[in-house]
Amino acid sequence: xxxxxxxxQLKIYAQGLLPDGTKRMWPIALEAWREQARxxxxxxxxxxxxxxxxxxxxxxxxxxAFSKWALRxxxxxxxxxxxxxxxxxxxTYPAPFLLAPIGVQSILHRExxxxxxxxxxxxxxxxxxxxxxxxxxxxxxxxMGDAPRWFQLYPGRDPNIVSSFIxxxxxxxxxxxxVTVDTTMLGWREMDLDNAYLPFLFGEGVANFFTDPVxxxxxxxxxxxxxxxxxxxxLSVYVNPAFTLEDLADIRRQTKLPLWVKGITHPxxxxxxxxxxxxxxxxxxxxxxxxxxxxxxxxxxxxIRSAVGDAYPLxxxxxxxxxxDILKALALGxxxxxVGRPYAYALAVGGQAGVTEWLHLLLAELDLELALAGxxxxxxxxxxxxxxxxx
Length: 391
Ligand SMILES: Cc1cc2nc3c(=O)[nH]c(=O)nc-3n(C[C@H](O)[C@H](O)[C@H](O)COP(=O)(O)O)c2cc1C
Prior knowledge:
Elements: H1 4-15, H2 30-40, H3 43-50, H4 57-67, E1 69-71, E2 86-88, E3 91-93, E4 97-99, H5 114-123, E5 127-129, H6 137-144, E6 149-153, H7 159-171, E7 177-180, H8 190-195, H9 207-210, H10 213-217, H11 227-237, H12 245-254, E8 259-264, H13 267-275, E9 280-283, H14 297-308, E10 314-316, H15 323-331, E11 336-339, H16 341-372, E12 386-388
Parallel strand pairs: 4-11, 5-6, 6-7, 7-8, 8-9, 9-10, 10-11
Antiparallel strand pairs: 1-12, 2-3
Helix pairs in contact: 1-16, 2-16, 5-6, 5-16, 13-14, 15-16
The structure holds flavin mononucleotide (FMN).
Residues 48-49, 100-103, 130, 132, 152, 180, 262, 284, 286-287, 289, 317-320, 338, 340-341 line the site of flavin mononucleotide.
């Protein structure tokens, strides 16, 4: 039970009593974090973080979809003590959100994935480590101690590398496997094309491959001796346009870890994945980075929830920016959400300290938003919490 939001809020107001109390070290509004991130990053990394596929219409739709739903606050319900915790596949987590897998974090801050990993670990919020992390998965695991971490797998062209990654994740204490199925190739990203910027070509985001014995066995010279050849080899194996449901079934057979499938927006795909024995689905369009003109992730969510049934675990991402978005996604059928770009802005602004502060603010906002919407427990937020509006 918590009164966390109120305490955090009063502490910030109390700073206003100090002589220079209005000069905060960190931004409050997400827009301000984003603006500072944009100022700090060179155009290439900024475009990589911010860009969407094609004309950006999916990315825009992700945000617009949230404005088509409004919360229906309820009053007079004694919301003095709140509980933000949730259960996912038998494990209790302190809040209804996780940090989404975001690759190549070295282009955002020199601390790279170690920053959000440590910030998330302090609060026991799960951190999802990307296949294309800048720091090897074992090093991130070590930095997190016993805190929850999941490994996100791009099922690439070489099944032996895929198996090796799964085994490494199991050995280094990752408690779930997330297979991302929407990235069998990179989307047509106009900002990156405009900047002629692909971080992998600079040797960023290849750490899991360069440290992998199976990947290394494919090379005639080591990545240290000939990095360019290793990068070319990476580009030829890290994703697989020929990926099918059969390949997913093969991954399912290889591990006892809970298996989540990320990147689903069609109810029939969700049903296929459920039938195959995946433990849950992550409704996501990759933040609009893959298919232009696609359905907003939030618009797909209710349909998928009704297809898979009430009990099947569903996570959601793409467009979550604030506490209100989290409540709306939960109301429309998600068990929890993944937050993506917002923590990447905080990372770019201030490394681990920045992500720690941003997390603190999001938790405080969520605690107050939940209470003021009339709920004591996040678990009580259901379809009746929202209404469809035309905006
Ligand atoms: C810069 C960037 C890199 C990403 N890298 C990965 C990745 O390596 N693996 C993955 O499954 N998703 C990746 N994603 C997608 C996120 O996990 C998540 O689906 C997305 O950020 C949600 O959209 P939002 O941030 O606009 O809310 C990436 C997203 C961004 C913005």
